Amino acid sequence: MGYPRALHRWIPHPVVWAGGLIAMLEAGLNLPSFSEVARRRLGVATLITLVCASGLAGWLITWFGGVWAVALVGTLGLAQRSLFDHVRAVARPLAAGDLGSARAAVGLIVGRDVERLDESGVATAAIESLAESFNDGVVAPMFWFAVGGLPGLFVYKSVNTADSMIGHREPRWRAFGWASARFDDLLNLIPARCAGAVLVLVGRGGWKTMVRDAGKHASPNAGWPEAAMAGALGVRLGGPAWYDGQRAERPVLGEGRAATPADLARALRLYLVACAALWMMLAAGGLAWRH
Predict the structure, then answer these.
(1) Where are the transmembrane segments (predicted)?
(2) Cα Rg for the chain, rounded, in angstroms?
(3) pTM for the complete prediction?
(4) Could you tell me the residue ranges of all domains in the chain?
(5) Does residue 264 contact residue 90 with C-beta atoms inside 8 Å?
(6) 225: which of 17, 210, 234, 253 lies 20 to 30 Å off by Cα?
């Protein structure tokens, strides 16, 4: 499930609206002339504005649209199809031996210097992105939709968008985006661990790796699905990577061999099974709630 491309022409995805609001607030409030304390406070105000606006939008659709509108908009808020398509666009040329095209495709979903990546590096980067985005794009939105309906889904998607846009450690965003980054961490606390659990469950292994290695990751949440994926596939993820010409020493997740193009194909199949398992769990939960 995902947002139909044809619909973009007439009604942009809600994330686009959230991104526009974030960009407008950042341009007007995150001024270099302001002190770091002032920018942090304005960042908090930006987050509150975003949460209130997105929550209100979800409530209005629920109030006026009814149950069918909630179901339609809610399922369109899940990014499982677009994520699959982006990663498959890496897997296909990589399997065909076209490293240049695979590098270009993976460069659309990761921030590292892709020209330095060999076949294993491309496969590793794509698998890591798939695992982390399984939480951000599928599990967490589904979790908050189940907990808070459309308001919960819209708040999560808008905060996650804010984290990706302004939740960085560079000087420009460090103070202003602090609140958005921390709140995004909080909203992902439970879903990320659920995402990891689902991956090792359907992958029939990897619990030990997930529990042991998840905490090594720089993110309090991303390590759970990434370590789970490493354990389920029996490969190593993480390790050194280059960003903007600088080498970053990242911890290694897993203790297997280096990832290969075949492992990326396996990761995509595992992802599809995990998504199907989630839908079955959601359906079972809905039936149990009705009774």
Answers:
(1) 15-32, 44-71, 138-156, 270-289
(2) 19
(3) 0.89
(4) 11-290
(5) yes
(6) 17
What tokens were used for 206? 């990897």
Residues of the chain with pLDDT > 90: what percent?
77
Q: Do 163 and 173 meet the contact criterion of CB atoms below 8 Å apart?
A: no
Count the helices and strands in the chain (H runs, E runs). 12, 5
- Residue the block writes with tokens 């659309």: 108
Residue where the block lists tokens 């995805």? 13
Both structure tokens of 116: 């330095």
* Cβ count within 10 A of residue 56: 13
Stronger pLDDT, 190 or 281, i.e. the higher one: 190
Residue type, 121: G
82-95 per-position pLDDT tens digit: 899 999 999 999 99
Q: Is the pLDDT of residue 1 over 70?
A: no
Tens of pLDDT along 110-132?
A: 989 999 999 999 999 999 999 99
Neighbouring CB atoms inside 10 A of 280's CB total 10
Strands 257-258 and 235-238: parallel
Cβ contact 248:242 at 8 Å? yes
User: Which residue is associated with the tokens 């061999």?
Assistant: 257
Which residues, listed in sequence order, are joined to residue 73 by a DSSP beta bridge?
A: none
Amino acid letter, 262? A
pLDDT (tens digit, 9 = 90+) per residue, 37-61? 999 999 999 999 999 999 999 999 9
Is 1 within 8 Å of 80 (Cβ atoms)? Answer: yes
Q: Longest C-alpha distance within the chain, in Å?
A: 59
Q: State which of 75-79, 88-92, 144-148 shows the largest mean pLDDT.
A: 88-92
User: Alpha-carbon distance 170 to 185, whole Å?
Assistant: 18
How many residues appear in the chain?
A: 291
What is the rounded distance in angstroms from the CA atom of residue 256 to the CA atom of residue 85?
Answer: 27
